[in-house]
Design brief:
By secondary structure, the protein is of the alpha+beta class. Helices cover 51% and strands 17% of the residues.
Length: 106
C-alpha cells in the first residue's frame, strides 16, 4: 500500500533541505552582511564595510580608521546582540580591521 500524500510546496522542501544540510545557518550568518546598515545604523554603516563571516561565526569588518575600530570594539557586545537577534546562524565574534573601505564615497 502506498502513502498518498499531496506534494509539498517547493519552498517547504527547500527549507527542509537547508535545515538538514546546515546551509540554513550559513545563509543566516551571511544575511548579516546584507542587512548590516539596518542592524548597526547609519553612523556605524558609514564608516564600516562587512567583508565575510566564517563558518565558526567570526565576522570580519573593515573600518575607516583605527580610532573607529577602537570605539567599535568597545561596542561589540551590543552590536553582537543586534546581529544575532532572531537568527539561527550566530555571529560569535567581530574582527574590526582598520583600512580602506572598498566602496565609493558620496
Amino acid at each position: 500500500m502506498t502513502d498518498k500524500r499531496p506534494p509539498s510546496p517547493i519552498a517547504d522542501a527547500l527549507a527542509s533541505y537547508l535545515r538538514r544540510s546546515g546551509f540554513s545557518k550559513r545563509i543566516q550568518q551571511a544575511g548579516v552582511i546584507e542587512a548590516w546598515p539596518e542592524l548597526v545604523g547609519p553612523q556605524i554603516a558609514a564608516v564600516t564595510a562587512p567583508e565575510s563571516v566564517t563558518p565558526d561565526g567570526v565576522l570580519r569588518v573593515r573600518v575607516a580608521t583605527a580610532a573607529w575600530a577602537n570605539e567599535l570594539s568597545l561596542m561589540t557586545p551590543r552590536i553582537l546582540a543586534r546581529l544575532n537577534d532572531g537568527r539561527q546562524g550566530r555571529v560569535k565574534e567581530i574582527r574590526w580591521m582598520p583600512g580602506q573601505l572598498d566602496r565609493p564615497r558620496p
